[in-house]
């Protein structure tokens, strides 16, 4: 029987999707147990399992794309469409947070004093740390674009510099947001304002951490010469994700920090 050749990549059987789903389940279950009973062991086990699986799964993907040549043009097109659909799902994810925020802020209920911010809530100054974080994140968007253009033009040194600056700015943003949370005069339990504020900005901060790790892996791969001028899908996906994080932060800053104060 003759062998059929095609441009699609049929992946080999892998244990990582199953292991990752188990890790996510344990993390979720561990978080519930931690919130209810202050037992953190199961949460740590699930989180470590997710990190372990993520590392090995990404290692397999890098091997398939960089060394085995499985990422053909049609395979890359499918991966790009899949990642764009993932970003769309993330947009809808944040849309629900903005819906909850405007539902509560445009028509404040009697329970919170018919005011927004509610009675007793001292909102953060939007022109202090939040504005600084906006400048940091927008600057990181410029540096990741610089790195992308440098890769396309074959300038390896500038691409490494731009990507390194982006990773550093991502770390700075996370540190500043953590300091802001520590010094905030309200908590997640302080009415619907505290809940919507910390859930929306907290999940964005989680996306910044994920994007920074994503870009850090790309920086390591770039230093190992894994990317070429025409084949750098991993970095391209990371830059798309980072620009998505930038845009979401602009909406968060304008709506929750500035307008919502």
TrEMBL record:
<comment type="function">
    <text>Component of the cytochrome c oxidase, the last enzyme in the mitochondrial electron transport chain which drives oxidative phosphorylation. The respiratory chain contains 3 multisubunit complexes succinate dehydrogenase (complex II, CII), ubiquinol-cytochrome c oxidoreductase (cytochrome b-c1 complex, complex III, CIII) and cytochrome c oxidase (complex IV, CIV), that cooperate to transfer electrons derived from NADH and succinate to molecular oxygen, creating an electrochemical gradient over the inner membrane that drives transmembrane transport and the ATP synthase.</text>
</comment>
<keyword id="KW-0812">Transmembrane</keyword>
<feature type="transmembrane region" description="Helical">
    <location>
        <begin position="79"/>
        <end position="102"/>
    </location>
</feature>
<feature type="transmembrane region" description="Helical">
    <location>
        <begin position="127"/>
        <end position="147"/>
    </location>
</feature>
<dbReference type="GO" id="GO:0006123">
    <property type="term" value="P:mitochondrial electron transport, cytochrome c to oxygen"/>
</dbReference>
<keyword id="KW-0472">Membrane</keyword>
<keyword id="KW-1278">Translocase</keyword>
<dbReference type="InterPro" id="IPR013833">
    <property type="entry name" value="Cyt_c_oxidase_su3_a-hlx"/>
</dbReference>
<dbReference type="InterPro" id="IPR000298">
    <property type="entry name" value="Cyt_c_oxidase-like_su3"/>
</dbReference>
<dbReference type="GO" id="GO:0004129">
    <property type="term" value="F:cytochrome-c oxidase activity"/>
</dbReference>
<dbReference type="GO" id="GO:0016020">
    <property type="term" value="C:membrane"/>
</dbReference>
<keyword id="KW-0496">Mitochondrion</keyword>
<dbReference type="InterPro" id="IPR024791">
    <property type="entry name" value="Cyt_c/ubiquinol_Oxase_su3"/>
</dbReference>
<dbReference type="GO" id="GO:0005739">
    <property type="term" value="C:mitochondrion"/>
</dbReference>
<feature type="transmembrane region" description="Helical">
    <location>
        <begin position="197"/>
        <end position="220"/>
    </location>
</feature>
<feature type="transmembrane region" description="Helical">
    <location>
        <begin position="40"/>
        <end position="58"/>
    </location>
</feature>
<feature type="domain" description="Heme-copper oxidase subunit III family profile">
    <location>
        <begin position="4"/>
        <end position="261"/>
    </location>
</feature>
<comment type="similarity">
    <text>Belongs to the cytochrome c oxidase subunit 3 family.</text>
</comment>
<feature type="transmembrane region" description="Helical">
    <location>
        <begin position="240"/>
        <end position="260"/>
    </location>
</feature>
<keyword id="KW-1133">Transmembrane helix</keyword>
<dbReference type="InterPro" id="IPR033945">
    <property type="entry name" value="Cyt_c_oxase_su3_dom"/>
</dbReference>
<feature type="transmembrane region" description="Helical">
    <location>
        <begin position="16"/>
        <end position="34"/>
    </location>
</feature>
<dbReference type="InterPro" id="IPR035973">
    <property type="entry name" value="Cyt_c_oxidase_su3-like_sf"/>
</dbReference>
<protein>
    <recommendedName>
        <fullName>Cytochrome c oxidase subunit 3</fullName>
    </recommendedName>
</protein>
<dbReference type="Pfam" id="PF00510">
    <property type="entry name" value="COX3"/>
</dbReference>
<feature type="transmembrane region" description="Helical">
    <location>
        <begin position="159"/>
        <end position="177"/>
    </location>
</feature>
């Amino acid at each position: 029987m003759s062998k059929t050749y095609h441009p699609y990549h049929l992946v080999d059987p892998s244990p990582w999707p199953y292991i990752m789903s188990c890790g996510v389940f344990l993390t979720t279950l561990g978080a519930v147990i931690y919130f209810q009973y202050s037992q953190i062991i199961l949460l740590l086990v699930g989180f470590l399992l997710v990190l372990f699986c993520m590392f090995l799964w990404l290692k397999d993907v890098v091997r398939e794309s960089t060394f085995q040549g499985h990422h053909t043009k049609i395979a890359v097109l499918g991966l790009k469409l899949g990642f764009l659909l993932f970003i769309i799902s993330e947009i809808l994810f944040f849309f629900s947070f903005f819906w909850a925020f405007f539902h509560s802020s445009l028509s404040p209920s009697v329970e919170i004093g018919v005011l927004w911010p509610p009675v007793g809530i001292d909102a953060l100054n939007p022109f202090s740390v939040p504005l600084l974080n906006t400048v940091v994140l927008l600057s990181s968007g410029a540096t990741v674009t610089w790195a992308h253009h440098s890769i396309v033009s074959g300038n390896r040194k500038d691409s490494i510099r731009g990507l390194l600056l982006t990773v550093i700015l991502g770390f700075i943003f996370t540190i500043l947001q953590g300091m802001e949370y520590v010094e905030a005069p309200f908590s997640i339990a302080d009415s619907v304002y505290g809940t919507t504020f910390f859930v929306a900005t907290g999940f964005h901060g989680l996306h910044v951490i994920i994007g920074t790790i994503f870009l850090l892996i790309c920086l390591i791969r770039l230093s190992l010469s894994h990317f070429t001028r025409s084949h750098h899908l991993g970095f391209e996906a990371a830059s798309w994700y980072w620009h998505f994080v930038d845009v979401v932060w602009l909406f968060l800053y304008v709506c929750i920090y500035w307008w919502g104060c």
